[in-house]
């Protein structure tokens, strides 16, 4: 018993140590980030008025002249890259490419980004069913919307879906963030429901935040990849990769990031399963 207690105390001490370091460094990081933003805006304002004077000098027509009250000051765009390729970009690209290669007759999705992943899919296919607990007012060509609780997948028959995805959605289930009922086991129930409705030979494309397993209430859960693999015990893992803001690491060891802490959910595990 005393040995067991000592192990628990060791773990608690490690957690406290990491928490203290994080709490001390985060304010410094935020202060530094805000100072950089302020400096860039200051520089940007100087460039704005310099460019405005040059524009007025060069503009020889009465079209597109600068008028008072219509300025829209964009002060930092000249410091940015051509476009962001953050973790959601890589995640959406990974899943969309795999689905387009497999080319299922109908594809189901649970709560993924409409302005990213769903738009990628909709540009290549006309038969998508989007499931979300929240309403969707827009009518998207080629996309049928089903407002439902994907925890139970009620109304969807067993083994009736040949292709399904859930990109960074299941980690939120049961936390109330999106108006869903509080249920600590909602993520587990949803995964079991997905196994129930997936047909033999069907494909599941899944992403969730990975790292040291814990809850960041009420944003999301961080999973050990092994937890996901063990929960989908009726499926075969075809691929496990990982994405963060820097890109995708393909076919990595499932335990590579088990000890990574405080990544704030910005490292995603990319799982392709087949039933």
What can you tell me about this protein's structure?
The structure is a single chain. By secondary structure, the protein is α/β, with parallel strands linked by helices. The chain folds into 2 domains: 2-79; 87-274, Rossmann fold, CATH 3.40.50.150. Helices cover 37% and strands 21% of the residues. It has an 8-stranded mixed β-sheet. A two-stranded antiparallel ribbon has the order 6-7. Helix 2 (87-102) runs parallel beside helix 3 (114-122).
Which structural class is indicated by helix and strand composition? alpha/beta
**How does CATH name the architecture of the largest domain?**
3-Layer(aba) Sandwich
CATH H-level homologous superfamily name of the largest domain: Vaccinia Virus protein VP39
Strand residue content: 15-25%
Shape: globular
Kindly, what is the distance between the CA atoms of the first and last residues, rounded to a whole number of angstroms? 43 Å
Count up the domains. Answer: 2
Gyration radius, rounded? 24 Å
Biggest sheet, in brief? 8 strands, mixed
CATH C-level of the largest domain: Alpha Beta
Written as H for each helix and E for each strand, in order along the chain, the element string is HHEHEEEHEEEHEEE
Number of extended strands: 10
Residues in helices, as a percent range: 25-40%
Q: So how many helices? A: 5
Determine the CATH topology of the largest domain: Rossmann fold
Low-confidence stretches: none
Mean pLDDT: 89
Strand order, biggest sheet? Answer: 3-2-1-4-5-10-8-9
């Amino acid at each position: 018993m005393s040995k067991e207690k000592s192990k628990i105390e060791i773990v608690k001490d490690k957690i406290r140590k990491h928490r203290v370091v994080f709490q001390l460094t985060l304010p410094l990081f935020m202060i530094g980030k805000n100072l950089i933003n302020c400096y860039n805006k200051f520089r940007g304002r100087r460039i704005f008025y310099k460019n405005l004077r040059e524009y007025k000098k060069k503009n020889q027509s009465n079209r597109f002249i600068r008028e008072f009250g219509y300025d829209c000051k964009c002060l930092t765009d000249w410091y940015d890259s051509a476009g962001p390729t953050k973790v959601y970009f890589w995640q959406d690209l990974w899943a969309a490419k795999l689905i387009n290669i497999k080319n299922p007759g109908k594809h189901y999705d649970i709560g993924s980004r409409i302005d990213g992943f769903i738009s990628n899919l909709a540009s290549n296919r006309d038969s998508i069913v989007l499931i979300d607990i929240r309403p969707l007012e827009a009518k998207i060509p080629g996309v049928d919307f089903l407002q439902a609780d994907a925890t139970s997948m009620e109304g969807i028959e067993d083994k009736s879906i040949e292709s399904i995805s859930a990109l960074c959605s299941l980690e939120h289930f049961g936390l109330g963030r999106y108006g869903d009922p509080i249920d600590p086991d909602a993520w587990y129930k949803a995964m079991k429901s997905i196994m129930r409705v997936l047909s033999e030979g069907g494909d599941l494309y899944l992403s969730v935040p990975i790292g040291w397993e814990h809850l960041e209430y009420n944003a999301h859960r961080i999973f050990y990849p092994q937890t996901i693999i063990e929960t989908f015990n009726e499926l075969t893992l075809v691929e496990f990769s990982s994405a963060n803001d820097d890109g995708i690491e393909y076919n990595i060891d499932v335990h590579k990031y088990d000890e990574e802490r405080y990544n704030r959910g910005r490292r995603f595990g990319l799982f392709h399963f087949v039933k």
